[in-house]
Amino acid sequence: MTQSNPSPGVGDAPPEQGSPPTQRRVAVEPELGAGKRAVIIGVTAVGAIFLLLAGVLQFLQGLAALIKGDFFVVARNFTYTFNVTTWGWIHFVIGVLMVITGFALVIGAMWARVVGIGLALFSAMANFMFLPYYPAWAIIIIILDVALIWALANYDRAID
User: 28 CB contacts (<8 Å, ≥6 apart)?
Assistant: First the structure.
């Protein structure tokens, strides 16, 4: 069994006059291995799970503010002061949009990646401004949003 030269043209003698043309090999990018494909699919699944989880947590945070506004302690003289009911609606809407986008990502909608990253950015900003009301909960959601952005941004179109 003979091995072919991996780089065409290197070490080959020039073709003689009148001889049939030689076939030129073109370098083709190798196909994705099963391992890399599994990693990409796994990261996408993690992104979908993070998006659904962050959406549910946002929804519950908004619902808590809408149902029982006095649950949250309101800090005085903070730069971002809104009525707790307003914060409830903001988190409620973000949560619903994140859950819808999470389900779209589960079924493979490409637009869900872009929308998910945008919603995670908006969610992180909203929770940063919500820090004086419930710091521990806001920090947990901000960390989840950062992990979500990472998971959705690490995508290789080669599997499409």
Answer: none
Whether 5 contacts 12, CB under 8 Å: yes
pLDDT tens, residue by residue, 82-123: 778 888 899 999 999 999 999 999 888 889 999 999 999 999
Q: DSSP letters along 20-88, please?
A: PPPPPP---PPPPPHHHHHHHHHHHHHHHHHHHHHHHHHHHHHHHHHH-GGGSPPPTT-SS---HHHHH
pTM to 2 decimals? 0.69
- Write down the domain spans for the chain: 57-159
Task: Identify the DSSP state of 113.
Answer: H
Q: Which residue has the tokens 């800090």?
A: 75
- The DSSP 8-state label assigned to residue 131 in this structure reads T
